[in-house]
Amino acid sequence: MALNIASGSRYILTNAQSGTAADLSGVDSRTVIGYGKHGGENQQWEILYNGDGWHIRSVLNGKFLALEGNPNEGTKVIADERPFTWHLWPDTKDIRAARIAVPSTDLVVDLANNGSSEPGTPIQAARRREGKHQVWKLVQV
Fold first, then answer.
1. Selection from 61, 11, 73 nearest residue 37 by Cα
2. Global confidence as pTM
3. CA torsion sign, 36 to 37 to 43 to 46?
4. Which residues of the chain have pLDDT under 70?
5. Is 80 buried (19+), middle (13-18) or exposed (0-12) by CB count in 10 A?
6. Could you give the 3-state DSSP secondary structure of residue 34?
7. Is residue 15 part of a domain?
8. Measured distance between the N- and C-terminal CA atoms of the chain, rounded to whole angstroms
9. Start and end of every Ricin B lectin domain (predicted)?
10. Residue-number span of the structural domain to which 70 is assigned
């Protein structure tokens, strides 16, 4: 089974290594962190096809999953007013899970510290590696 993404549907992005969810921080509504999955609107993301890739928009505040700056190793993933285009690729070991990639680079969305389950672990861009800390299960809400 390959990725089956319904554009416009809501998903919780769950890290395959830690089981934590991509969580829009309640502190600033901008920082995106790994946090225990509870299914609140700050962990729900609407995935929208745009013709060139995918926008990932927060259900809580309508901001888009984006990079804080230029696409480099360690650049923070944040929620931003401006749409950002991502590519979603099935993982080679679990084709039901995705690698969320920055187009035209070797960067993917990565849960820092090798996929730590510690609440508040940063989510960042990193060069693609084989670890499950760069693999995300898209759980439809």
1. 11
2. 0.94
3. positive
4. 1-2
5. middle
6. strand
7. yes
8. 19
9. 8-78
10. 9-140
Exposure string of 105-132, with b = 16+ CB inside 10 Å and e = fewer, is eebbbbbbeebbeeeebbbbbbeeeeeb
- Burial (CB < 10 A; 0-12, 13-18, 19+), residue 42, is buried
- Say how far apart CA 87 and CA 71 lie, in whole Å: 14
Structure tokens at 115: 């996929």
The two most distant CA atoms of the chain are separated, in Å, by 38
**Mind listing the pLDDT tens digit for each residue in 79-91?**
999 999 999 999 9
Reading the block at residue 52, the tokens are 């060139």
Q: Where residue 134 sits, what CATH number does that domain have? A: 2.80.10.50
- Note whether residue 3 is domain-resident: no
106 belongs to a structural domain: yes
Domain count, the chain: 1
